[in-house]
Design a protein that fits this description.
Layout lengths: L14 H12 L3 H8 L3 H9 L8 H15 L3 H17 L18 H28 L4 E5 L4 E3 L3 E8 L4 E4 L2 E3 L6 E7 L3 E10 L6 E9 L4 H4 L8
Parallel strand pairs: 2-8
Antiparallel strand pairs: 1-3, 3-6, 4-5, 4-7, 7-8
Helix pairs in contact: 4-5
C-alpha cells in the first residue's frame, strides 16, 4: 500500500483557490479530473467557483472533497473544515463568494485578442479599399446627357449637347474627342443635316470600358430647297 504525507494548507487561501491551484499545477483540465476521480464535471466546477449552495447536499459535497483531498494528497479534515466555514459564511452573507484567482490569459479581452482584432480590422479595411480602387478603375464611368433629349425634333441647323460625367474621363461624340471641364461637365455644339441625325456620346477612363449613350435628333426642312436635299444622316 502506497503511503503519502498530506500537504499543509495555507489558511489565507479560500477553498476554490486551493482546488484550482492543485489542479493547474498538475496540468489537468476539469474534464480530466472528473474522469480520474469519478465526480461529475458540473460539481467540480461548482466547487472551484465557490457555488456551494448549488451542490446536491452536505453528504455529497463532503464525499467530493474527500476524493479531491485523496487525489491531491491534501488533509481531508482540513479541506472539509474550510468548506463548512465558507458555506456558513455564505448562508449569513448570501452575496459572499470566495475571491477567484484572475487569469489574464483566459480573460476574453486579452492583449493578444485585441491585437488580432486590430490586425483583422486593418486587413478588412485594406482589402475593401483595394476592391473599391479596382472597381473604380475598371468600371464604366457615369454618363448623363442633360440636353437634348433623344428623339428631339428641331428645324435648327445646329444644337448643343451638354452632359456630365466623372472627372478625368475622356468624352467622344461620334468618335470625335471633345474637351470636358475639371468636374466632368461638357458642352459641345454639333451641326445638323435635314433628316435623322444620330449621335453616340461615349465616356471612358484609361482602363475602363466605355459608357455610351445614343441620342437621335430629327431636323425638319423649312424650305423647298431643303426638302429636296438627299444628304445621308450623320452616323
Amino acid at each position: 500500500m502506497t503511503s503519502f504525507i498530506a500537504k499543509k494548507l495555507t489558511a489565507a487561501k479560500a477553498l476554490p483557490e486551493i482546488l484550482r491551484e492543485e489542479r493547474e499545477k498538475s496540468g489537468l483540465t476539469l474534464e480530466d479530473l472528473s474522469l480520474k476521480i469519478q465526480v461529475s464535471l458540473k460539481y467540480l466546477k461548482l466547487l472551484e467557483n465557490g457555488d456551494y449552495d448549488l451542490l446536491p447536499g452536505e453528504v455529497y459535497a463532503l464525499e467530493f472533497l474527500k476524493k479531491l483531498a485523496k487525489h491531491w494528497h491534501l488533509n481531508e479534515k482540513a479541506i472539509q473544515q474550510i468548506y463548512r466555514q465558507e458555506k456558513n459564511a455564505q448562508l449569513v452573507l448570501p452575496a459572499f463568494k470566495p475571491k477567484k484567482k484572475f487569469h489574464a490569459a483566459a480573460h476574453w479581452l486579452s492583449p493578444r485578442l485585441i491585437k488580432q482584432s486590430v490586425v483583422g480590422l486593418v486587413l478588412i479595411l485594406l482589402v475593401s479599399y483595394l476592391g473599391w480602387e479596382i472597381q473604380n478603375i475598371y468600371s464604366k464611368p457615369a454618363l448623363t446627357i442633360i440636353s437634348p433629349q433623344s428623339e428631339t425634333v428641331t428645324t435648327g441647323s445646329y444644337l448643343a449637347i451638354t452632359g456630365q460625367t466623372e472627372p478625368e474621363t475622356a468624352i467622344t461624340i461620334n468618335q470625335q474627342e471633345i474637351l470636358a471641364g475639371p468636374d466632368g461637365s461638357f458642352n459641345q455644339t454639333v451641326d445638323l443635316t435635314v433628316g435623322l441625325n444620330v449621335f453616340k456620346i461615349s465616356a471612358s477612363k484609361k482602363h475602363s470600358q466605355a459608357n455610351t449613350v445614343t441620342i437621335s435628333i430629327l431636323r425638319k426642312p423649312v424650305t423647298a430647297e431643303q426638302i429636296n436635299q438627299t444628304e445621308q444622316p450623320i452616323l
